[in-house]
């Protein structure tokens, strides 16, 4: 195990490291290592039926949340090959929906490790072929060893790159965080690095 850093510790800029949720603190390595790999033989990397159900529900959520929406720039995204979308992400699914719903491609996704091990949400994310990622915040807090994190993240990146090479979309939010502040939090440069 790596050296454990408790909640309340600060980063190099003097800001608090993100506090981990209860589920993020529980690293279920056997379950994470047994996460099913995406299948790139069909139209979707995960279950075609459950992907359709999830996208239908997501469209309803978007319709309820927003009366109108306008997304520009999709004409600049190539349709003849795979693509990678990367952005800074805070709370909720709204930014992920803005990327995924108008896009003609289906996606293989990388997400926080506990999204695939939670009881109900994990079932859905595994059906959608989401691949688990161990973030630095979990690693610093002793959730797993550096070797385990490197292996799991390498396996995930290999799955994501295979999806891109087979013409699917890929979405990855490297500096994802949760907060309940009423103001903007410090912007991080992860997607640009």
Strand count, sense and barrel status of the largest sheet are: 4 strands, parallel
SS element count, helices: 7
Structural class: alpha/beta
H/E element string?
HHHEHEHEHHE
pLDDT averaged over residues: 82
Low-confidence stretches: none
Radius of gyration: 17 Å
Termini Cα gap: 27 Å
The geometry reads as globular
User: Biggest sheet, strands in spatial order?
Assistant: 1-4-2-3
* Helix content range: 25-40%
Query: How many beta-strand runs?
Result: 4
Structure description:
The chain has 193 residues and is an alpha/beta fold. The protein has a domain at 78-178. The chain is 35% helix and 9% strand. It has seven helices and four strands, in the order αααβαβαβααβ. It has helices at residues 22-25, 29-33, 48-65, 94-100, 119-127, 136-140, 146-165; strands at 83-86, 107-112, 131-133, 169-172. A four-stranded parallel sheet has the order 1-4-2-3, with helices on both faces. The protein is globular and about 45 Å long. The model has no long low-confidence stretch (mean pLDDT 82).
Keywords:
193 residues; alpha/beta; four-stranded parallel sheet; 4 strands; 35% helix; globular
Topology readout:
Blueprint lengths: L21 H4 L3 H5 L14 H18 L17 E4 L7 H7 L6 E6 L6 H9 L3 E3 L2 H5 L5 H20 L3 E4 L21
Parallel strand pairs: 1-4, 2-3, 2-4
Outline of the structure:
The protein is an alpha/beta fold. It has helices at 22-25, 29-33, 48-65, 94-100, 119-127, 136-140, 146-165; strands at residues 83-86, 107-112, 131-133, 169-172.
């Amino acid at each position: 195990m790596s050296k454990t850093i408790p909640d309340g510790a600060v980063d190099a800029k003097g800001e608090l490291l993100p506090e981990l949720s209860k589920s993020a603190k529980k690293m279920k390595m056997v379950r994470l290592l047994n996460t099913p790999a995406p299948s790139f033989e069909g139209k979707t990397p995960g279950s075609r039926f459950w992907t359709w159900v999830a996208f239908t529900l997501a469209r309803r959520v978007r319709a309820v949340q927003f009366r109108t929406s306008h997304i520009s720039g999709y004409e600049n995204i190539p349709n003849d090959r795979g693509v990678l979308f990367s952005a800074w992400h805070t709370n909720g699914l709204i930014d992920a929906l803005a990327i995924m719903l108008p896009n003609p491609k289906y996606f293989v996704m990388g997400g926080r490790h506990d999204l695939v091990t939670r009881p109900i949400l994990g079932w859905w994310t595994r059906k959608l072929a989401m691949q688990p990622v161990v973030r630095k915040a979990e690693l610093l807090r002793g959730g797993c060893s550096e070797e385990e994190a490197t292996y799991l993240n390498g396996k995930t990146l290999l799955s994501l790159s295979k999806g891109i090479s087979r013409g699917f979309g890929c979405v990855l939010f490297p500096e994802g965080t949760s907060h309940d502040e009423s103001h903007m939090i410090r912007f991080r440069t992860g997607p640009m690095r």
